[in-house]
Amino acid sequence: ARKRLKPLRTVVAWRGRAEWDQVMVGLYCGDSRLQQEALDRVSAWKSRYGPKMPLAVDCTAELIRCKVLDSSGKLKSHELILSYGLALVRFVNLITERKQKMVSIPLRQLAREVDIPIWVVDLRHELTHGKLPRLALCRKGCDVVLDWLRKTYWSRQLGNNLCEESEEEEDEEEEQEGVEANAELDNDAWE
Question: pLDDT of 74-83, one tens digit each?
Fold first, then answer.
């Protein structure tokens, strides 16, 4: 008798596509209450999944947490700069880390390869080695990185697309240019 091969199953921290979609929409919705609920769900995923948590999910959660704290009005400007700063530094370091093989490659070059704006890498450099930047620049960096994560990771998972229809038309040309750069992105970083 021939044995039927069962398809390989991947164990993930989320219950299914519906939960994934709900968290994705919650993170990007702009409503701090819904964002906090999505962050709580990501924390549950992290407790189940541990170090296997996709870097993009982890980075997105850290950046959204900064935005939720910012909108709460509970932190002072300096505290917000440090919070945004840590999340941005971790993003750049974690996303470029997998591309840093045995040879040290400049972060600016790695950022270009994965289509991260160079000024975000410069912001990371200032946060790490220089004088702390203004809060407005940290907020802008957070927004740009969250948009990058949405386009590069979230909207491509499970066939989802969170782009607004008006953005889709504007982004078609940019997306086509970015496809080549993103094709080289190490999938291990996202899975």
Answer: 999 999 999 9
